[in-house]
Amino acid sequence: MDWRHALRALRRLLADTDDTVQAFEILRALNGRATARNYRRLVRTPEGGRIAYERAEFSRRLADEAWLEALPPGSVGAAYRDWARAEAVTAEGLVEVSRVGVAQIEEPHPYAWFARRTRDVHDVWHVLAGYGRDSLGEACLVAFSYAQTGGLGWAVIGLGAALRYRDGRGWPARRALLEGYRRGRRARWLLGEDYEGLMREPLGQARARLGLAAPGRVYSTIPPEVRAGYGRPA
After folding, report:
1. Is residue 211 within 8 Å of residue 186, measured between CB atoms?
2. What is the C-alpha to C-alpha distance for residues 116 and 131, in angstroms, rounded to an integer?
3. Which terminus of the chain is more solvent-facing, meaning fewer CB atoms within 10 Å of its CB: N or C?
4. Predicted confidence band at 36 (pLDDT cuts at 50, 70, 90)?
5. For residue 232, is pLDDT > 60?
6. Angle at alpha carbon of residue 94, lines to 88 and 100, rounded to 5°
7. Mean pLDDT (the chain, rounded)
């Protein structure tokens, strides 16, 4: 737990909300205990022991275009594939950002593997939860992720986002963040999922099973152009 480093990174992130490197700095500084706790929770689930034993690197699957193309139409994986292409994001891009200035993320250790797995499913959570990559959508997914993981790094980033919403638009934005947190609390624990199987599951069926069938209503009512401007200098 390195609060001083986390708060310095938060100041830099608030100055430039596109500086994803600072988000990873905060998560590394504050999420260690949650990572260890969630790894132990994983191995207590019915499928978790096998998943932990196999220790698959999910980023490699997400970077495999042939594998993504073979996923069934209407599946979680097909929705992710289309979303990633539309947003021009790649699994490799997120991996590279997470490596900046640190080598520990690649360590052959169960906790490091679980941290990588948590990183790699972030964009799949965008698809499952229905949050875009606009400024407000990312902030809502941060609140959702805090509820799911208990990682204090997520809480600090979410609080920083909420503090940026000071003008007349701030209240609906903060309501959307609170809704994201509540959705994360109500949903099943997503870190316990077998993602190889989940990616083949029909998207609507998966959302219903995971407790994510109800969309983020507050987020959905805010026009896209307004979501994109939240938290940015006027």
Report:
1. yes
2. 21
3. C
4. very high
5. no
6. 135
7. 90
